[in-house]
Write a structure and sequence with these properties.
This protein folds into 2 domains: about 170 residues, no CATH class; about 270 residues, Rossmann fold, CATH 3.40.50. Helix content is about 30%, strand content about 25%. The strands form 6 sheets. Strands 1, 3, 4, 6, 7, 12 and 13 form a 7-stranded antiparallel sheet that branches. A 6-stranded mixed sheet has the order 17-18-14-19-20-21, sandwiched between helices. The protein has a two-stranded antiparallel sheet with strand order 2-11. The radius of gyration is 26 Å and the shape is elongated. Strand 17 and strand 18 form a beta hairpin. It is an alpha+beta fold. GO terms for molecular function: GTP binding.
Length: about 475
């Protein structure tokens, strides 16, 4: 489950809050996730500083309110001259308006243990009280909107802002914090220059298999939730070496299901020549709560039993795979904007796979995609990624979630809406791929040691 507030809306809200600054919006409360309950709202949102409340109604209108003071549950009003109501959309069409406080901040918000977010002396916007049970996908809120008491509505009313009803699909509350970049990057020695890009690109292009194992190509398995960006990661890497934006792998979802329907082992070509590099990116069907690869499937994939373009019930199962058929590194692909809302069953499936990989000694990394969607500084300039506290906190959270070192969590931004190559996108993707290939070599060094130890053991037995 992802947040509903879009990047352009965050920029608009940030401008209204303080046009001289930019802000981060961190989701605190979401009724479709946490339930529509006043006590839950207060437990998650009280004493959190400035917040913005956003409602999404069934008429495709988006509206809400901002307060610069913390929510409380003490049954009293709070003074806040910076508070305002707003609308962002009306009937699905962008229509942004800010409605400032007109009472010098008096009675700007009302905090009560049994009330949800409530704004204004006449309860200009009173979202709900107690507990609201969902009817299908709709929350019929039991609050009210007596607009105009404490906020200047500039000719707008209950009908032109809220369509005359309080039936919503969702309500979200975000913590609002001024954006800050670290003085020093948390990953160093990255030079965002064309020269640096070419150096990493050359290292990836000239990567050679470890001698002595009779392996022509290393295989990197991509595993992740539907829509996380597995196929897009291949397309991004492929684009870098093709010299233009490539969509060789189908991307997207169909009715929330994965467009990847078969196991694909993609080669990366050096431009349009016949030369291919010494690794393959192996794409799998996206994980869903009840679909995608399971525990048995992952074992077959890791052990090299599954050929390219293999589909369930298809012929071609590899009975006696060679070392070259096996997986040498697994890259879990996680959407940075969705880390807090990964379905429990999907996370359980991912965690159940890890012991199979650990048993085989296969290294694991996480490709943390869509980092531009969680940090506005990074969205505006990707070279800010390693100065971003938001991205760093997400990396730390994913490392803890997956039980992996932070150095195994690799932030990337795939090509999505771009029509031309971008140097910074290329650098991040190449850095992640170079890191993965280093892990592949670590695995194969261990494998080489195992083979040498086994040979020595046989010699001793024969003696």
């Amino acid at each position: 489950m992802t947040t509903n507030l879009k990047q352009p809306d965050k920029v608009q809200l940030s401008t209204w809050i303080d046009p001289s600054k930019r802000h981060n919006f961190t989701l605190l409360y979401k009724i479709s996730r946490d339930g529509c309950n006043a006590q839950t709202f207060h437990s998650l949102c009280d004493n959190k500083g400035p917040t913005v409340t956003v409602l999404y109604n069934t008429s495709e209108s988006v509206y809400g309110a901002y307060t610069a003071v913390s929510w409380q549950s003490n049954g009293s009003y709070s003074i806040d001259a910076k508070a305002f109501l707003f609308k962002l959309k009306y009937n699905g069409t962008a229509h942004s308006m800010k409605f400032p406080n007109k009472t010098d901040g008096k009675k700007a918000i009302y905090g009560h243990a049994n009330y949800g977010p409530t704004f204004g002396s006449g309860y200009d916007l009173y979202c709900f009280s107690g507990t609201i049970n969902k009817s299908g996908i709709i929350f019929p809120l039991n609050g009210s909107a007596t607009l105009g008491y404490a906020y200047d509505m500039q000719g707008q009313d209950y009908n032109t802002v809220m369509n005359g009803h309080l039936e919503v699909l969702d309500l979200e509350v975000y913590s609002v914090q001024e954006r800050m970049l670290l003085q020093k990057p948390w990953i160093r020695n990255v030079d965002w220059s064309q020269k640096f890009e070419q150096e990493i690109k050359e290292k990836v292009a000239t990567y050679k298999p470890l001698p002595g194992l009779d392996l022509q190509q290393r295989r990197i398995l991509l595993v992740g939730q539907v829509g996380a960006g597995k196929s897009s990661y291949f397309n991004t890497v492929n684009s870098i070496f093709r010299g233009h934006i490539s969509s060789q792998a189908n991307v997207g979802t169909t009715e929330q299901h994965s467009l990847t329907t078969s196991y694909r082992m993609y080669e990366i070509h050096d431009g349009y020549g016949s030369k291919t590099f010494n690794f393959r990116l192996c794409d799998t069907r996206g994980l869903e709560e009840n679909q995608g690869i399971d525990d048995q499937d992952i074992c077959y994939l890791l052990d090299g039993h599954v050929p390219d373009r293999y589909q369930p019930d298809a012929l071609g199962f590899v009975k006696n795979p060679m070392q070259s058929d096996k997986i040498h590194c697994v890259a879990f692909v996680l959407d940075a904007s969705d880390v807090d809302d990964i379905p429990e069953k999907v996370l359980e499936r991912i965690k159940a796979m890890q012991p199979r990989m650990n048993h085989r000694g296969i290294p694991q990394v996480v490709l943390l995609t869509k980092i531009d969607e969680i940090c506005e500084e990074t969205s505006e300039d990707l070279s800010n990624v390693f100065f971003s506290t938001v991205v760093k906190e997400c990396v730390d959270k994913v490392a803890s979630l997956m039980g992996l070192p932070r150095s195994h969590i690799l932030p990337v931004k795939n090509y999505e809406c771009e029509v031309e190559l971008d140097q910074n996108i290329n650098i991040l993707a190449l850095l992640s791929l170079r890191r993965i290939l280093n892990f592949v070599d670590d695995f194969l060094f261990n494998k080489s040691d195992e083979i040498a130890a086994e040979k020595m053991k046989r010699l001793k037995v024969s003696d």
